[in-house]
Structure formats: structure tokens, C-alpha cells
Amino acid sequence: FSNTYRMIEQDDFDIHTRLHTIVRGEDEAAMVESVGLALVKLPDVLNRLKPDIMIVHGDRFDALALATSAALMNIRILHIEGGEVSGTIDDSIRHAITKLAHYHVCCTRSAEQHLIAMCEDHNRILLAGCPSYDKLLSAKNKDYMSIIRMWLGEDVKTRDYIVALQHPVTTDIKHSIKMFELTLDALISFNKRTLVLFPNVDAGDKEMVRVMRKKGIEHHPNFRAVKHVPFDQFIQLVAHAGCMIGNSSCGVREVGAFGTPVINLGTRQTGRETGENVLHVRDADTQDKILHALQLQFGKQYPCSKIYGDGNAVPRILKFLKSIDLKEPLQKKFCFPPVKDNISQDIDHILETQSALAVDLGGTNLRVAIVSMKVNIL
């Protein structure tokens, strides 16, 4: 949500083209239409830009359109954050982009091993860490209290508020909407100041927003409901929160850099590597279970985790980009494990044996033989 392209302009980049590709809708079809619309618009842009390399990040459905377009137009693809494991359709999209990409930047050693297991060329994989950790681990904003007060009110103290960020699970929309309803009920009962971010643009997001409005979250004295928080400010909000709750990858990845307690709900991040700051509630099927998790986690302080990076990812990625030889063959090669030779025929093999098939059609008997070029029956 919001005009996040302004963050790109603030970093002094000129934006060549802006495309509107997101189709609003209530179901999975809207995501398919969004990908289709992007596929229609992207070829013209790529023909004009003629990029040497397309950098594609993450596992969102709009990234799939970028990777597909670049692959079909013979543009080299560098994929960032491949090889990770999570839940929902994002998992399949991430691995699909991996198969389309020519080069890979991964964040963890496990992700690197997954890419190798998926038959990707080890020489084209860089273990760099997560680029966002470069910013997280260098975030030193002494005036973080003004940010907290701006978003949560003047009377809020550090470690005494909650950040909630929950998205639809596209493979089970009905259950994820019910889980969100239980989460809000638990947060209302827990009675702490809470910043609730709107869900992302996935099938089911509109229904989740309706649940928020049905429960009066936007007008509740303990809640602040917002569509977008600038990244630099969001870092400070989660770094000084008493707890983060939801099912965003941010909770199990970036927030670990601060040791902030996290409650991860449901299956959306199943398989993600996490630090000890994350408490999983896989079956978030009752309000009491979520409430109990809040009572266990709120206000704790855990050791900072560097599973996803050490703050030096960007220099490694730049060095990797510079090392790419644009003259090497574009055709992607997979490193398949050795398999037994097939039994199909090959003309070179036949010529090497220097033999011929001889058929005698005379008389009453049919005789067939393999005869060498020296007229010996083999």
C-alpha cells in the first residue's frame, strides 16, 4: 500500500517506467489476472530498457511475472532470497523463479543447500545474507521515541506495545480469515496499545479488512490501524516493541535482528529458519491459545539473531554482479545427479561399431544377421 516508489526516488534513482498491474479482487483469480496483466505490459518495457541483468527479489506473485518475462526474452536473471522454505503459494512461486533464474543470492546456508539440491549450479550461487539486514544492523536512531509516539500515541513506552501484521494464507483463505478474527479478539482482551498493519494485496485481503472494521479496530482506543509505515520507521517500531504477532516473514526473519519477541501464527511461514525469539502457534484455532502466547512472549528480550545476515550483504552482491560475464552462454544448465545411461540408439554409436544389418530374402527362409564391414557375421 501507499506510494512506496517515493522511497526509490529519495535514493536518487530515476524511475524509467511505472506499471499498474495489480487487479483488485476477492479471490485467487485476481492474482492470476495481475500476473497476466504484468506479462502483457512488461515486454514493451524490457524491449526499451534492454537490461543486461534483471534482479528479481523474493516470492511474490508479481515477481513471477518479472522472471517469466525476462526468461522468455533471453535476459539474465539474478534472484535474491531463493532456496528458502515457507508456507502458502509463495513457496511454489519462489522455487519457480529459482528455476527461471541464472544466478542466485541466498540468505542462509540452508537456503544455499536447497538450491544445490534443486540442481542449480553451485558456481552461480552466492551466500550473501539478507540485504535488509544491512540496514537493520546499522539502524541507530536515537530519536526512536518520536517515531513510536507518532504512530502509537504520546503515552506509549518502549517494550509496552504490540505490532500486529497478518496476511491471508492463499491456500486456505477461509481459515486465515477466521484466525485473524481470533487474533484481534485476543489482542482486544490483552489490552495493550497495538499497531495493526493492513494485510498485503493477496486473495482474501478485503475480507480481513472487513473483519477489522466489523470489530471497530480503526476506532478502538487501544489500536492504531495503518496501511503503510516507511521502512526506516518500521524498523524502530519493531525494534522497541514488547512483541510482534502475525504471520509475516518479517517476524521470523528481520525482527530476530533485535531480539524482539515474536508470535508466529498458522502455517504461512512453516519451514522458515527462526531464532529463539519466535514462538510458533501452528494451530491458532482458539482465542485462548493466542492469548496464552501473548502472555508468555510480551515484554521478553531475546539475544539478537544473525541467521539471515551479518550486515554486509550488499557489498557481496555488488561484487558478485561485477563478476558476471555477460559473454558467457545464456542457456541455463542444471547440475543433475548422475543417472544410469539410457538405452536409446545413437548414430555415432552405430558408426563406431562399423556394422550393418543384413537381410537375406531368398528361398523359403528369412535370414537376418549383424554383419561387420569386414563381412564377418557378428
UniProtKB/TrEMBL annotation:
GO terms for molecular function: hydrolase activity, hydrolyzing O-glycosyl compounds; kinase activity. Keywords: Kinase, Transferase. Residues 4-322 form the UDP-N-acetylglucosamine 2-epimerase domain. Pfam families: Epimerase_2. It comes from the Eukaryota. GO terms for biological process: UDP-N-acetylglucosamine metabolic process. Gene3D superfamilies: Glycogen Phosphorylase B. This is GLCNE kinase. It comes from Phaetusa simplex.
